[in-house]
Amino acid sequence: MQLRAARGASPGERPMAPLRSAACQPAQGSEGDARRLPAGLASPSRRREEAQESKRPIGAVVVPPDSGGFRVAPPGGAGAPARRPPATAPPAAGPLGAPEPTGPSGPADEVTELAVRLRGAGLSAEAERKAQRDLARLATLPMSAPEFHVISGYLDVLASLPWRCYARPHRCLAAARQCLDAHHAGLEECKQRVIEHVAMSRLQSRPSGTVLLLVSPPGTGKTSLAAAVADAMGRPLCRIALGGVSDPAELRGHRRTYVGAMPGRIIEAVQAAGCRDPVVLLDEIDKTGAPGAGRSLGRGSSAVCAALLELLDPEQAASFKDAFLALPFDLSQCTFIATANDTASIPLPLLDRCEVVRLPPYSLADKARIAREKLLPKLLREHALPEGAVVLEAHAAASLVRGWTREAGVRGLRRLLSRACRYQVMRLAEAEDARRGLSEASSSAGRIRPAAPTSAAPGPDTAAASLLLASEADLTGVFGAPPFPAPATRQQRLPAGVANGLAWSSFGGSTLLIEALVLPHEQLPSHPARSPAAARVGTVIVSGSAGPVLREAVHAATSWLRANWGEVAGLFGNPLASPPLAGHDLHVHLPRAAVPKDGPSAGVPTVAAIASALTGVPLRQGVAASGEVSLRGMLLAVGGIREKLAAAKAAGISAVVIPAGNRGDIAGLPADERSGIRVVPAATLIEALKALTQRPPQPVAAQGSRSDDSSSAATAPPPQQWTRASRL
């Protein structure tokens, strides 16, 4: 073909189109040549055709009749007929240009499977409408589209939630009580409250919305008690750990607009339980939010508490809306149980929606029984030891609790028994090596297997078959010297100016020394203009990591002593002693200064320590005190009496002076916790000082308490072992 230039064409000839490269030329005879042309080179009519074809809907996937009504409508509308691509059209391109799979793993089969699952999920009306729309949208997308996986993941969550599935089994109360007794020893009051909760859940078709808040020191069995409650009710347990959670989206979920969005922990827990009425454990609810969050929901508080307020409200829980689902989900059938070590860090609105159930610390008898009946058999199985490989006698168990542990729970006791099991494993391995005649070097490279116990008499081969712990000497051989000596080894006289106080912390009760020292007052050179009378007035120094409330208690005690010094000096038998701050300074110190201390109940022992330092008369040995004082000399009730009495018994203290307003706390204690210690209620400071002086006190004995007086057994309290702030 002869080519002519357009400019040189004759008047009768039509100018030619510009030349195109060979790559843009369509193949001769191929179908759809114009479709393969670049958009700028196609004719206007062809471009209009392509624009109409791009808007034409792809044929919709029609779900079989067994999908239960989840039939995907055609994209053109509910009444439009389903369109199918022509037979000559090429298959849709998948990722990397590969054709979309049409086998069992194709989009049609996945949509069909989701529709069938959604049918059996029992969705609510609103959730069903949402699922229908998303299924219709999913049918129009190829599997290579990112939105396909987002929608399919959302529908998968909807299909897996228990919309109408309930556990519902309720055991009889006798079986529930037996289940609680099998899991925990003691805790009778707490078990009684749990049994009442189980009985109410049986009678009511809809839970009352009561949230049990288990409060106790660490290691006292809060989480295991919640598991026992779920077992007693015959329902699954879902544990949600709230420690360190500072983002409310972790509870409420993330919106689907974010990459990697997923439901919150609450919906995930119910999804894992498989029913709408599980027992949900909100563990460590007092440790939520950012550090420094206050007790109110004002400035600086955590938004996690606001999410928990919605969750624990019975009215709002019936329509709890997760951000990922964007649909209301009924959580009113769930039984919520929360745990905390201390209620001081829980916001007041959140605390108001909970029923606080305080778990007391284990008594010495309970710990000894738990060690022999619960912990030791379990540890023997964990260490692959046969039954009877480690024998712990009752007397040795009590000595182990008193001399080697100082805690509210049993975690330290468990570590000690685990150490005994490892010690026995080592003895069995050494006995097996000796029986085989192996050297020490070769035995370290061989495989050690515990020797099976035999019924033969102890000999060279069977001497290590059992580890018997029957006395304190046996315990010392395994665990070393006791870090907390028994009361008989801690008898010492307290000097003048030292008093025994009682403190409470989130780890339980403890004893605490309060020391007072009288120093000669010297006028400071920075105050030369002070009058002679003012120069004779001393100052009060408080040290030992004392908090502001404790400092105020010290100043209140000093002021009361100055106003009533004549009566106090006569009570101590030294009426000629000079009153406080009369030409001398007072220094009040609390040992173990690294441990922060605060609280008002140090008033009574502080008054006694200052009076003893001023008169030079030591206080009565083996007596501790706790109580808040007023400027009128009245004793006000304090908290933590049960924990403080347990700490006093463990320290070998024979008598405790408490405010008269705490008589009810003493009357509610079990007999074994009241026995072995004398409780002296006092209404005024004069009565408390009479009980703390050398004269024998006249107590108001509680039921079950002993009346003997061991004033000669002078016992100093054990050192402070808590690492958190102690409340006096």
Can you give a write-up of this model?
The chain is 36% helix and 12% strand. The chain has 25 helices and 20 strands. The strands form 6 sheets. The chain has a 7-stranded mixed sheet. Helix 5 packs antiparallel against helix 7.
Present the secondary structure layout.
Layout: H1 44-55, H2 107-120, H3 125-139, H4 146-160, H5 173-183, H6 188-203, E1 211-215, H7 222-233, E2 237-241, H8 249-252, H9 265-273, E3 279-283, H10 303-312, H11 314-317, E4 320-321, E5 328-329, E6 335-340, H12 348-352, E7 354-358, H13 364-382, E8 390-392, H14 394-404, H15 411-436, H16 440-445, E9 467-469, H17 472-479, E10 498-505, E11 508-520, H18 532-535, E12 540-543, H19 548-563, H20 565-571, E13 584-589, E14 597-598, H21 603-615, E15 623-625, E16 628-629, E17 635-636, H22 641-650, E18 655-659, H23 663-667, H24 671-674, E19 678-682, H25 685-692, E20 726-727
Parallel strand pairs: 1-6, 1-7, 2-3, 3-6, 8-9, 10-15, 12-13, 14-20, 15-18, 18-19
Antiparallel strand pairs: 4-5, 10-11, 11-13, 16-17
